[in-house]
């Protein structure tokens, strides 16, 4: 067997947690140990790297977590990592432990920070995309997205029961930060009559007409999925309510429940494969690579390429959803 290019790695989950992160940590730790590497877990993301919350992990440390939501390493929003002097402290903490490779599991903010680390240091760095937002380019999916879609779907299916009973219009707000990718997928599979996303300017008058026309045809209840990045549900309700006067409008903000829960098979499979691949890249001396999932393959994409491109919502999906929910 050829000699590994590195001896010791560390793994962390900065930024918002996503279901499947634990599955990815398990894959990283067990792959690393099977290659004879020493592996550390950094608690609380970049904050723990600065404050030295770094502990060695073994095979048993990641037992019983494959199905658990959240992240066993915990996380912490860490604006201080933007300061170079804080990053220098973090780098020293890694070097003191003989760490020469780093695996960052997280969303677009984590990827940008991982790129900075790779540019400023000799550490080999790989990134595993994990976010319910699915807003990272060069990968079809991020870990946690499928789980969040299913969680929101289950909630909307329940909301539909009460919406139908009362013949109401329900505005359901879903997460996704500045993007509508999560809302679009949720809206399509939930059969929402209207989907409002930041990528497309909404027209309240046209939406009201769509609802009133639907009622004329015999529809009695309506689900409107609103992406938090487009408009907040309560604000949208204020705009829509006067235009559909004789219909009752209610709102439901799904919020952080979308980030929790046991990861689905799809989120877990992605986590197992990208986790192993991220370690193998480091073992081969590769760096500055994100583990993308394209079609059925895991591909290694340079950070520079991922950061250059913005992921776009597939607007064909919006047209399909509108046609099917008429
Ligand atoms: O990026 C994941 C995400 O859940 C977004 O969808 C949401 O806007 C944001 O994180 C919420 O962040 P926080 O948990 O810090 O409120």
Spell out the blueprint of helices and strands.
Elements: E1 8-12, H1 21-34, E2 38-42, H2 45-51, E3 54-57, H3 84-96, E4 101-106, H4 108-120, E5 124-129, H5 145-166, E6 169-174, H6 181-190, E7 194-196, H7 204-216, E8 222-227, H8 233-240, E9 249-253, H9 265-283, E10 289-294, E11 297-302, H10 303-308, H11 315-324
Parallel strand pairs: 1-2, 1-4, 4-5, 5-10, 6-8, 6-9, 7-8
Antiparallel strand pairs: 2-3, 10-11
Bound molecules: 6-O-phosphono-beta-D-fructofuranose.
Catalytic activity: beta-D-fructose 6-phosphate + ATP = beta-D-fructose 1,6-bisphosphate + ADP + H(+)
Binding site for ADP: 26-30, 160, 191-193, 217, 219-221
Enzyme class: transferase
Describe it:
- The structure is a single chain.
- The protein is of the alpha/beta class and 326 residues long.
- The protein has 2 domains: 8-144 and 263-308, Rossmann fold (3-Layer(aba) Sandwich); 147-259, Phosphofructokinase domain (Rossmann fold).
- The chain is 41% helix and 18% strand.
- It has 11 helices and 11 strands.
- The protein has helices spanning 21-34, 45-51, 84-96, 108-120, 145-166, 181-190, 204-216, 233-240, 265-283, 303-308, 315-324; strands at residues 8-12, 38-42, 54-57, 101-106, 124-129, 169-174, 194-196, 222-227, 249-253, 289-294, 297-302.
- The strands form 2 sheets. A 7-stranded mixed β-sheet has the order 3-2-1-4-5-10-11, with helices on both faces.
- Helix 6 packs parallel to helix 11 (315-324).
- It is elongated and about 70 Å long.
- The N and C termini lie far apart (60 Å).
- The mean pLDDT is 97.
- 6-O-phosphono-beta-D-fructofuranose binds at residues 16, 77, 107, 131-133, 175-177, 228, 259.
- This is ATP-dependent 6-phosphofructokinase.
- Its cofactor is Mg(2+).
- Its EC number is 2.7.1.11.
- One of its GO terms (cellular component) is 6-phosphofructokinase complex.
- Substrate binds at residues 131-133, 168, 175-177, 228, 250, 256-259.
């Amino acid at each position: 067997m050829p000699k590994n290019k590195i001896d010791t790695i560390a793994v962390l989950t900065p930024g918002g947690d996503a279901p499947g992160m634990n599955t990815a940590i398990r894959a990283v730790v067990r792959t690393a140990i099977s290659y004879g590497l020493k592996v550390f877990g950094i608690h609380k993301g970049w904050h723990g790297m600065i404050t030295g919350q770094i502990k060695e992990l073994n095979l048993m440390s990641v037992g019983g977590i494959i199905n658990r939501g959240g992240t066993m390493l915990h996380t912490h929003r860490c604006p201080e990592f933007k300061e170079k002097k804080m990053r220098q402290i973090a780098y020293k903490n890694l070097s003191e432990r003989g760490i020469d490779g780093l695996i960052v599991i997280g969303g677009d903010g984590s990827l940008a920070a991982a790129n900075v680390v790779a540019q400023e240091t000799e550490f080999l760095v790989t990134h595993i995309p994990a976010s319910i937002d699915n807003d990272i380019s060069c990968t079809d999916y991020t870990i946690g997205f499928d789980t969040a879609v299913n969680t929101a779907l289950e909630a909307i299916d329940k909301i539909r029961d009460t919406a139908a009973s009362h013949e109401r219009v329900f505005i359901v707000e879903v997460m996704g930060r500045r993007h509508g990718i999560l809302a679009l997928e949720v809206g399509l599979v939930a059969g929402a009559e209207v989907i409002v996303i930041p990528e497309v300017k909404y027209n309240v008058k046209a939406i009201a007409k769509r609802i009133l026309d639907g009622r004329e045809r015999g529809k009695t209840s309506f689900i409107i999925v609103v992406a938090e990045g487009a408009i907040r549900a309560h604000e949208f309700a204020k705009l829509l309510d006067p235009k559909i006067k004789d219909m009752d409008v209610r709102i439901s903000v799904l919020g952080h429940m979308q980030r929790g829960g046991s990861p689905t098979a799809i989120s877990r499979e992605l986590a197992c494969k990208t986790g192993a691949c991220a370690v193998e890249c480091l073992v081969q001396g590769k760096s500055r690579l994100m583990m993308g999932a394209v079609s059925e393959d895991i591909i290694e994409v340079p950070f520079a390429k991922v950061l250059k491109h913005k992921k776009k919502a597939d607007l064909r999906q919006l047209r399909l959803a509108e046609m099917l929910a008429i």
